[in-house]
Give the backbone structure.
Amino acid sequence: MFSFSGSRPTNLGVKDGKLTACPGSPNCVNSQALGSDAEHYIAPLSYSGSPAEAIARLKGIITAMPRTQIITESDHYLYAEFTSALMGFVDDVEFYVDEAAGVVQVRSASRLGQSDLGVNRKRVEEIRAKL
C-alpha cells in the first residue's frame, strides 16, 4: 500500500468565524466560499439541538466511516482526517457550528494533488444525508 499523506496543515481551525478558504485547486469544498464559486461552494449543513449535540452526531457519523481519525474536537468544532484506501491520500475535513447563522459550516480539502475526482463533495453530501 502506498502512503501519500502529506503534512498536516497548520492553518486550519476557525478564525473570526471563518474556516480557511479553499486553495485555487479543484480538490476542496467550503460552505463559506462565495455562492458564485461553483467549483468550491457547498451548502452548509443543517442541525437541530445544541452545538455540542450537533458535533456529537457528526462525530458518530464520521467515526463509523472507514479510515477516519478525529484530530480536534470541541463544542463548536470538529476536525477529522480521512485516508483513501488505495493510495493513502489524506483529506482534512472541518465542521464549525455557526450559531449566528444557524448552520454547520464545512470544509473538506485534499492535502495533495490537483483533482480529487469529486471525493470531497461526495463525502460532505454523504455526511449531510446521515445528519
In short: The chain is about 20% helix and 25% strand. The radius of gyration is 14 Å. Helices lie at 51-63, 119-130.
